């Protein structure tokens, strides 16, 4: 059975190719969506090509709601979006996928049932389909090539839903089993290098030495080091000094 997670239903209106239905299912499941509705698929249902293309998301196809007509598919919905790239003479609010899914999240949180319609591959939704929608979703694509296939459009919309319904970490860094180095550990590392470099005559001439030390210390402050990094850099300097003494 579908999960209990509140979410919109994705309605594929008269899809033509089983492969695209499978790609749509895969895209939905990538982002945690499992409410698929299929209206009058051209090649009948079930479709083995859809299963093959779904790549592990076949459960969505098994549980998909099949309808002969669009009104039947939308019968329990309180707010409906229609995806289209073409200007229409129908007056409706137009949203980006991000804006649409933000609104969808608000409405679903308030207890409404939201659906998103995706049209057939050849020409997209017809005006009669869009007339049943409350709002339009348009992807800001290249105006000279605005064609998106069904799977791509579903993927973009599903991704935006995920962004609105989950806390997204926009940057992560895995440091494995190490910990971040503390300020005192970095300070001791810098002192180690400064002492050895001072012995080697690096900070020269004397009048420029204070400024050189500031630049050198700033170099380390721009790098966020782990304890493992600090230990390795201590080892590098110790080995260089040891090698210098041996080579005399």
Quick recap of the structure?
The chain is an alpha/beta fold. It is 46% helix and 11% strand.
Characterization of the model:
The chain has 248 residues and is an alpha/beta fold. Helix content is 46%, strand content 11%. It contains ten helices and seven strands. It has helices at 18-30, 48-54, 58-63, 70-73, 97-109, 127-130, 150-165, 183-199, 209-221, 227-246; strands spanning 9-13, 36-39, 65-67, 79-83, 94-95, 114-118, 135-137. It has a seven-stranded parallel beta sheet with strand order 3-2-1-6-4-7-5. Helix 1 runs parallel beside helix 7, helix 5 (97-109) packs across helix 7 (150-165) and helix 8 packs parallel to helix 10 (227-246). It is elongated, with a radius of gyration of 29 Å. The mean pLDDT is 90.
């Amino acid at each position: 059975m579908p999960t209990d997670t509140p979410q919109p239903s994705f309605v594929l209106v008269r899809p033509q190719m089983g492969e695209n239905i499978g790609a749509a299912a895969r895209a939905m499941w990538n982002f945690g969506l499992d409410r698929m509705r299929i209206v009058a698929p051209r090649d009948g249902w079930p479709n083995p090509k859809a299963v093959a293309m779904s790549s592990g998301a076949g459960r969505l196809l098994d549980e998909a709601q099949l309808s002969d007509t669009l009104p039947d598919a939308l019968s329990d919905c309180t707010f409906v979006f229609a995806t289209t790239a073409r200007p229409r003479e129908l007056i409706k609010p137009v949203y980006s996928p991000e804006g649409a899914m933000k609104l969808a999240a608000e409405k679903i949180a308030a207890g409404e049932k939201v659906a998103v319609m995706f049209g057939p591959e050849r020409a997209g939704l017809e005006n009669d389909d869009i007339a049943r929608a409350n709002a339009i979703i348009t992807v800001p694509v290249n105006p000279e090539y605005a064609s998106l296939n069904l799977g791509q459009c579903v993927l973009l919309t599903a991704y935006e839903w995920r962004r609105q319904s989950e806390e997204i970490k926009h940057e992560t860094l895995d440091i494995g089993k190490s910990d971040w180095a503390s300020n005192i550990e970095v300070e001791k590392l810098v002192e180690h290098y400064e002492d050895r470099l001072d012995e080697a005559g690096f900070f020269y001439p004397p009048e420029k030495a204070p400024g050189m030390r500031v630049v050198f210390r700033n170099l380390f402050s721009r790098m966020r080091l782990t304890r493992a990094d600090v230990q390795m850099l201590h080892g590098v300097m110790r080995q260089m000094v040891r090698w210098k003494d041996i080579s005399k």
